[in-house]
Design goal:
The chain is an alpha/beta fold. Helix content is 12%, strand content 20%. The chain has a single domain, classed as Protocatechuate 3,4-Dioxygenase, subunit A, CATH 2.60.130. It contains four helices and ten strands. Strands 1, 4, 8, 9 and 10 form a five-stranded mixed β-sheet that branches. Strands 3-2-5-6-7 form a five-stranded mixed β-sheet. The longest helix is centred in the first third of the chain and has 13 residues, at 13-25. It is globular, with a radius of gyration of 18 Å.
Length: 255
């Protein structure tokens, strides 16, 4: 499988209108514009969604509450917006992130690879989108584990929905991308390209950063049109303050 072209423009209403103008003027091809608005594909939640959620569930996975020792690994900053296929932002949606630590282990009772786990890594976080659909996480670059390429897991629960939509985000240039079973299962080239991002290194801090815009339909039943009934993988966790049973407030502000 050849890794698709990574043409990409972060979405917002202003950028969408600018891009439409570029299409009209002939500076963007129709295919490139279609890729920009490609609906984010569903992928499996995988076997390691936390079976016991951590007490600290904020969007900074590097530091656990009251623990002064940070997680081991390359600091990675993820940010983007949640939009509908027209580019309109989706606010008040719950974004969840879970991933492997620097040893390739998850915070799951069966998720330790080689018996090692970074006890200082939160492993899971969540964020509620603001009025412009923005979301942000501070985490580490996930290590590889047996059988998979490097990736992040995301869960998105739209306002008013009771079930979680799951997808994954991948690193451009990873050798294992071409043989990863999850990435290969995304048949549409534009959709596959939409979940592969370039992570750029800051020359001073050596931290990595990437932006990724998640495009989801708000139409009821939009994800029930084929034979895959696993688009939504169960109920989301309590959102926190203001939501019955929540362990704490869901972050809204950038780090």
């Amino acid at each position: 499988m050849r890794e698709p072209s990574l043409f990409y423009i972060p979405l917002s209403r202003r950028r969408l209108l600018q891009s439409l103008a570029l299409v009209s003027a002939g500076f963007l091809t129709r295919n490139a514009f279609a890729e920009m608005l490609a609906q984010t594909p569903h992928t499996t939640a995988g076997p390691f969604y936390p079976d016991h959620l951590p007490l600290d569930q904020d969007n900074d996975l590097i530091h656990i509450t009251n623990d002064i020792t940070p997680a081991v690994g390359t600091v990675t900053n993820l940010s983007g917006t949640l939009v509908d296929p027209s580019g309109a932002p989706v606010k008040n949606a719950l974004i969840e992130l879970w991933q492997a630590d620097n040893f390739g282990s998850y915070i799951h009772s069966r998720g330790a690879q080689g018996g090692q786990r970074d006890s200082h890594f939160q492993g899971y976080g969540k964020f509620e989108t603001g009025k412009t659909g923005e979301w942000v996480f501070r985490t580490i670059k996930p290590a590889l584990y047996t059988g998979r390429t490097r990736h992040f897991h995301f869960g998105i629960t739209l306002p008013g929905m009771q079930r979680r939509f799951t997808t994954q985000l991948f690193f451009a240039g990873e050798p294992a991308n071409t043989r990863d079973m999850v990435l290969r299962a995304i048949r549409d080239d534009a959709q596959r390209a939409s979940v592969i991002r370039e992570f750029k290194e800051d020359g001073d801090t050596k931290q990595l950063a990437a932006t990724w815009d998640i495009v989801m339909s708000l139409t009821p039943g939009a994800y029930d049109h084929d034979d895959d009934h696993d688009h939504f993988d169960g109920p989301p966790p309590p959102r926190g303050e203001g939501f019955p049973g929540g362990p704490g407030p869901v972050p809204r502000d950038p780090l």
